[in-house]
Amino acid sequence: MYIEQIRLENFRGYTRLHWQPDPSMNMLTGGNAQGKTNLLEAIFYGLTGHSFRTYREREIIRWGSTFCRVEIKYLSGQHLNTAVVLLTSEGKKQKGPDGGRNRLMDTVPLPVVFTPDHLLMIKGSPAMRRRWLDQELGPLLPGYQFCLRRYHQVLAQRNALLQKIRVKNGSRQELDPWNQQLATLGARVINMRYRLLAELSPVMREIYSRIGGGHEKAGLSYLSSIPLERTSAEGEIVDIFIRELARLFDEEINRGQTLIGPHRDDILTTINDRDVRRFGSQGQQRTMVLALKLAQLEVGKRFFGDYPVVLLDDVFSELDQNRRAQLVDYLRDKTQVFATTSQPACRDMTGPAGRVIIIREHALY
Ligand SMILES: Nc1ncnc2c1ncn2[C@@H]1O[C@H](COP(=O)(O)OP(=O)(O)O)[C@@H](O)[C@H]1O
Ligand SMILES: [Mg+2]
Questions:
Q1: What pTM does this model have?
Q2: Three-state SS at 190
Q3: pLDDT digits (tens, 9 = 90+) for 47-98
Q4: Whose CA is closest to atom 8 on ligand 1?
Q5: 68 close to ligand 1 (CB < 6 Angstrom)
Q6: For a 10 Å CB count at each end of the chain, is N or C smaller?
Q7: Angle, to 10 degrees, between the axis of helix 321-331 and the axis of helix 282-304?
Q8: Is the pLDDT of residue 264 over 80?
Q9: CATH number of the structural domain 126-279
Q10: Fold (CATH) for 2-111+308-364
Q11: Is the beta carbon of 55 within 6 A of some atom in ligand 1?
C-alpha cells in the first residue's frame, strides 16, 4: 500500500496540514521538537485509530482545540481508500475505507514502526519483547487482542483471589473456575504466539543471513513459563497449565500472584544456537533487531496481501553506516517509508526516487 495524501487538523502541533508524500522514501529532517515524530504518529493514528506513543489519547489534540482529525487517502491493491479518524474531547469517531466504523484494523496493514527503543529489544526486559509480540504481531491474527485482554482481566481477578486466600479470606475451591478460565485463555494466547513466531522465524533467519553475513545461523523461539515439552496444541497447553497451577498453589498463595502464563513468557533469539542476549555483541544484537523488524514487514505482507508502510523514527542516527545502508537497501522499491532524522548526514539516504522534507515549527518545506 502507499499513502497518497495526508490531511491533518489540530493534530499535536499541526494546526492544518495537507501533504502528498512520495510513494517511496520520505526523509523528514529538522531540529528537535519541530514535529517529525508527531507526523509519524499522525500517520499511524490515521490508519489504525491508535497512537504508538501514548495511551492518553486526548493529548494528541492540539492544545486549546476541541478536536483533531486525520484523513489518509491510500492505495491498496487497485483501490483508493480513505481512512478518517476524528477525535473530539467527548470521544472518537472513526471511518474505515468502506465507511464502516472502527473496522480499520481489519483492512489496513498495520504500519511497521521502528524506533530506537526497538534497538534495546534484545537487551531489554522480557516485558519489552512481549509488548512487541502483543502490539505489533498480535494484531495480525484476528481475535488475538481480544483474547489477550480477557486473559489479563481474568489474571487480575485471580491475583485478587490469591491475596484473599492468603489472608484466609477465601478458599482453594474458589480458585478452580479461575484456573480453568486462565488456562483456557492463556493457552489460546500461547498457541497464537506460536503461530506468529512460526511465520516469522524462517523469514527472520533468511534476512539475518542476508544482512548479517552468511556464516551465522539465527534462530527464534518461544520461551514459556509453562513447561510445554514442545507442544503447541491448545488442548494440551490447557492441561499442562492447570497441572502446573495446582503444583504451584502454595507458592502462589505466598506471593499473592500468578507465577506462570503468557504474562511471564519470553522470546529467545539465538545466533549459532547461543543466546544473543547473553552472548551476542552489540552489533549482532542490532542486526538481530533489524532482521526481526524486517521479518515483521514480510509477515505483515503475508497476512494482508500488501506491504505495510514503514515508519522509522530516529533510527538512522543510532545505526552505523553499514546497517543504515542495509536497511535502506532492503526497503527501497519495496514499500513506502517515512523516516525522521535530525542529522544532516542522513539526508542522502533517500535514493534517487526519494524525497527530503524539512520540518520546521510543524510546517513542511
Ligand atoms: N497536543 C499538542 N498540541 C500542541 N503541540 C504539541 C502537542 N503535543 C506535542 N506538541 C508539540 O510537539 C513537540 C514535539 O514534537 P515532535 O514531533 O515529537 O518533535 P521531533 O521533531 O523532535 O520529533 C513538543 O515540543 C510540543 O511543542
Ligand atoms: Mg522525534
A1: 0.93
A2: helix
A3: 988 999 998 999 999 999 999 999 999 998 888 888 899 999 888 777 766 5
A4: 12
A5: no
A6: C
A7: 10
A8: yes
A9: 1.20.1050.90
A10: Rossmann fold (3.40.50)
A11: no
